[in-house]
Amino acid sequence: MRPLRYSINVTLDGCCDHRVPIPDEELHRHFATELERADALLLGRVTYVMMEAAWRQPATGTWPDWMADWMIPFARTIDGAKKYVVSGTLDRVDWNAELVQGDLGRAVQQLKREPGRGLYVGGVTLPLALADLGLIDEYEFVVHPIVAGHGPTLFAGLSERLDLELMGRQEFRSGAVALRYQPRCQLRHNAEADTGVSPSAGPGGHRRAGGNRRIVLIRPPDNTSPARPRARPRQRHAFLRRSSPPWSIRRHSHGARRGDGKSSRPNGWPAPPTWAAPVAELSTATRRTPGGWLRPRPQ
Length: 299
What we know:
single chain
């Protein structure tokens, strides 16, 4: 299955406006290398139209005057790449591209099942929808040392939080840093596929406590009996802690007497309520507390 990779320029405050960070020659070489790793590009309508206007080679075969010589390798790479355009409004595309319509999840999964090195997705809106579907296998954020102070911001409106793990980083002379991440769920799936055992499992394949599942399953030593959930320990004496008044279970309570006949209760402490008084009048009875058996003090 081909992995789906996503890469984008972003500022320190999360702005993903393509006009704010200006990639230099080193970054153009980096993105050209990333495009060469992919068999095809997956683009939305807005990104496709913008890229075609900027990087499509004119029919004359000569590049525009505004394009520097170090931009031409990137322009040639993206101009010759295979493209899939996700759009419900475009009728036709002719920049070495095909239209993708219908159910987005099924269409992208079908593209990923095809053999090859991988797919590359760009833009903002389309990657947001693919991230919600859990179809992106690798994220690369090229963070520029810029604070834009405005939007649009990356992944605004994401339905669920993305839990990512850093897989690598690359620093550039301009101060930008490329951070490469993979979803943690994808890493767990790859580990299970390689070893056949979940990463959160202990020795013998038993799942450790604190894993992702709420019910801990105990694997029997043989296959004669099915796995059964482990029962939670019962809280003992919980009813005593809820029902027993504090003056009846503490030896040094609010109304404790010292040998000189004076109260040991500090000034300002309230006296125990009247409903706790009959407990102290039982000179021979005992009362069980979480700390053990306690005989009330005689008056």
